[in-house]
């Protein structure tokens, strides 16, 4: 049966742990045999994969994070979407597309229990890894549940041109926020927040973050969606109104190692203004996913939400795509196209 | 009618604003005429008054705090209990005791709408300013509402020998906490937490706070009741278990001016462990007060709660009592006895 597939698949591996910032030298490409799926398994030909900030923490140390870390010499993994090309599992017909956890390789042998069928007619495949995937879901959970978004809120979002931030800004407006302010690095990105991503104000944090925030929200903010910590969080503590809320986004937490995490000044504002500061990690909130998918798919269909991706071609360029994303080279969700949607 | 009272009353005034730590030079005693109560007013002979950490912030600057600040040359005020000696207001008969906001003087002309009758048969008068007053209520709100105390929790409380802390420790045990850990300055106070205030472990924070906390709660803590911020908060962020909660107590917030507030390192723990950090100010939670008074009065009657006070005699010593409290000279609630409970 497997005669129609290659005997081996390329797999991106962790060549070494980064000392400081990760670089291309930390990645390597190996080959693994492609074996026949046993019952309950699917052989998947990957089409797209996601490169996520949380990868960095998993590469860095053997210290226990909130997910498993990679081993030196072993394969990387992460969210991907591919076509089922073999396997006999109910509900996963050959030819359907599934979202699963074994990216960073051309072919993956996937436990069907860890895979979800996605419908390419409901939304394009890249969206299922972006605004309809973990990225969009993170934005949704942070706004709706952790941040308790209310009608009329003024919302501030950091890293607003990134995958989570650009989704959060659009969702916030559609969920009733009165005013949505985003920050990004550089004038070009700040402008793009306003012209293409629906933010009321885009702030270039490299110019003047506290001043920009004060000018954008002279009466203060109600909700801060934090993607970066540090000086952004300090500026937000000052801008928050009484009873304000901070959602600390766990998706990007591993961008900074624990030791690097800068001290947060003026936390006394949290007492004086009765703030609520809450960390969240999206996998605790799976119960919200059906509601999220229903609403966002509908917004995508009507064009009320625009999904932005930065797509890099070729598994051999996946490491570059990841490294570029870490330094803010992407707008919206950063993806790698591993293969065509259909083999002709 | 007022022939039976002195023509004037002593009033403690703000002589000058403190530059740095407050000292005796910032206080003065003046005299004001005692006038006849108009309809709706009560003339009250003060018996006890409270000295509170929040006074400091109100002395310091003209910067807007969450309550009004004192004016130089003007009277101080604060919680007090006294005997109604004149006035004709329904529900406030002459001879009853009321709790009101005009302490720091022998006699006060009190708007009855700002006074509450207290029952000396239900609990001794000092308790109505301490464990049954704002102090105890702060502890209760912080544990029950902001901290979301749950059966079986391990709770850590800073400034545990102080007024709020010593109440919080006892309440936590009675409300179902499995293990209650307190910190205080010095070995004597730490010992006293265990021997007299019902804490399972008392930590001398001057010796080794992180080490003491790790030893006292090897499996981590669920709830941190924060009375001090700073290094205590950092130590707690590390000790908190996943999903842990921090209640930032607003009562003592003014102890430190905003500029002095030390930066909090390792706030990334809040993301990694999905912590909830929440500031609160007790006056937002008046709806809880009846439940609080009922439960705590009952605990006092059965002896399950012990109320501790440090009582200083004489209005002329009120400034000293306040200054001593600021440097930790008190155990439990710091009060001043202004006059006898009954004039013979």
Automatic annotation (TrEMBL), chains A, B:
Q: Which residues cross the membrane?
A: none
Which branch of life, at top level?
Answer: Bacteria
| Entries under Pfam families matching the protein | ADH_N_2, ADH_zinc_N
Write out the entry's keywords from A to Z.
Oxidoreductase
Q: Where is the Enoyl reductase (ER) domain?
A: 23-336
InterPro entries cross-referenced by the UniProt entry: ADH-like_C, ADH_N_2, ER, GroES-like_sf, MDR_fam, NAD(P)-bd_dom_sf
Q: What is this protein called?
A: NADP-dependent oxidoreductase
Protein species of origin: Prauserella endophytica
């Amino acid at each position: 049966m497997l005669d129609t597939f290659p005997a081996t698949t390329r797999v991106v591996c962790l060549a070494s742990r980064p000392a400081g910032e990760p670089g291309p030298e930390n990645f390597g490409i190996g080959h693994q045999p492609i074996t026949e799926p046993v019952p309950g398994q699917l052989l998947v030909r990957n089409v797209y994969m996601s490169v996520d900030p949380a990868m960095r923490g998993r590469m860095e140390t053997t210290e226990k994070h909130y997910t498993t870390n990679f081993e030196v010499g072993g394969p990387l993994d992460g969210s991907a979407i591919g076509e089922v090309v073999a396997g006999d599992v109910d509900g996963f017909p050959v030819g359907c597309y599934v979202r699963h956890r074994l990216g960073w390789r051309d072919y993956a042998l996937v436990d069907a229990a860890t895979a979800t069928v996605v419908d390419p007619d409901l939304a394009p495949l890249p969206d299922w890894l972006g605004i309809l995937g973990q990225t969009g879901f993170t934005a949704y959970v942070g706004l709706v549940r952790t941040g308790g978004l209310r009608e009329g809120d003024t919302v501030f979002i950091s890293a607003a041109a990134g995958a989570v931030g650009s989704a959060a800004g659009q969702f916030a407006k559609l969920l009733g926020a009165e005013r949505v302010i985003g920050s990004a690095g550089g004038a070009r990105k700040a402008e793009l927040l306003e012209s293409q991503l629906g933010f009321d104000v885009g702030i270039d944090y490299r110019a003047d973050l506290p001043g920009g925030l004060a000018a954008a929200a002279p009466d203060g903010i109600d909700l801060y969606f934090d993607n970066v910590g540090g000086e952004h969080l300090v500026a937000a503590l000052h801008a928050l109104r009484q009873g304000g809320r901070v959602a600390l986004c766990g998706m990007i937490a591993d961008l900074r190692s624990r030791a690097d995490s800068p001290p947060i000044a003026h936390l006394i504002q949290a007492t004086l203004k009765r703030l609520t500061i809450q960390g969240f990690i999206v996998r605790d909130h799976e119960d919200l996913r059906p509601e999220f998918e229903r609403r966002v798919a509908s917004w995508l269909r009507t064009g009320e939400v625009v999904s932005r991706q930065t797509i890099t071609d070729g598994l051999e360029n996946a490491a570059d795509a990841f490294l570029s994303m870490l330094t803010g080279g992407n707008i919206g969700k950063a993806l790698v196209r591993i293969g065509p949607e259909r083999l002709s």
